Predict the structure.
Amino acid sequence: MQHSAEDMDDQGAFDPSQDPQVQRIFRKLRRAGESSGSDLDVAPLFPGFPFDVRLVAGITPIERDGPLDFFIDRPNGMRGWIINLTVEGAGRVFDGPESFVVEQGDLLLFPPQAVHYYGRDPAAEKWWHRWVYFQPRAYWRNWLQWEKQVQKVHVLRRRDGAFFREMFRLFVEVEKLSMLTDSLSADLAFNCLEHILLSCARVERAAQMKNVPIDERVLSACTLISTNLQQPMGVREIAAEVCLSPSRLSHLFHKHVGMGIVQWRDSQRIQYAMQLLRVTSVPIKSLSQMVGYDDPLYFSRVFRRQVGMSPRAFRARSMEVGDEPAEHASPARG
Ligand code: FCB
């Protein structure tokens, strides 16, 4: 099943209640006897779907007394992560004193093994929610944490209409891309999901940093680090350049950037390495020196830790060009 561009015109009127994907799901649910087991539009909406994939996305349009009007109950959670966006109506998560309601624009993030217990809020007529199930890339770790958590479930309340519209557009896009069969679309789906997670991390960070303008000495330290990736400066040296003691700089860095100096520097070097791996044929040994690691083995270790694969495998993957046979990815298998 593929989606066409006119399914949800990004530029057109924005009305989540007219989501064509929902209309399609309703049609399929109405047609009695249809084998829902193999239909990717509806199979994941019922218990028993294996989720043995790297990414699968969809929308669950629960209506009072409809076929999907039951509580999703996974006491042991899932193997992968789930991000969930309420599109229409209201949902209820958990029962008992911990239970809470989510409404349009609210986002939930379920880490692996977190308990899933949610359904339509009994006071609401419907609960439509979009979701993406995924196995994250290694370097997403820092973005997979939101401040508010209830029983391991991360909660991000709606910010404003523009934020919701943007999230909605991206969720639709992830779903469309995940249904296409070439390998580049699978990568684009991941890219789009990364965009969602980054946007959430950004509003989270903005909220946490309210009234704390970024310290200009920290900014100078960042500039020094990123302009000297090839010949990395030590923390002591950087601190001296920005007129702080090393421990004061470390403290301020953590507060403003959300991670340690060495960790940030490593992530900058690895990002630069990823770019060089993608767009050049520089041998890995020279490349590791270009990004500031004298020892290529150590570079490969840090790279693997952050990216989840070796530099060589990363380059090979980036070189792969789309148009693979259809069985490759529907949805993206991991
Ligand atoms: C569907 C649920 C949805 C999400 C995915 C992974 O069955 O309707 O909320 O949990 O599974």
In short: Strands lie at 55-63, 72-74, 81-93, 100-103, 107-110, 116-120, 126-134, 149-150, 153-156. The chain has a mean pLDDT of 85. The domain at 216-321 is CATH 1.10.10.60 (Arc Repressor Mutant, subunit A).
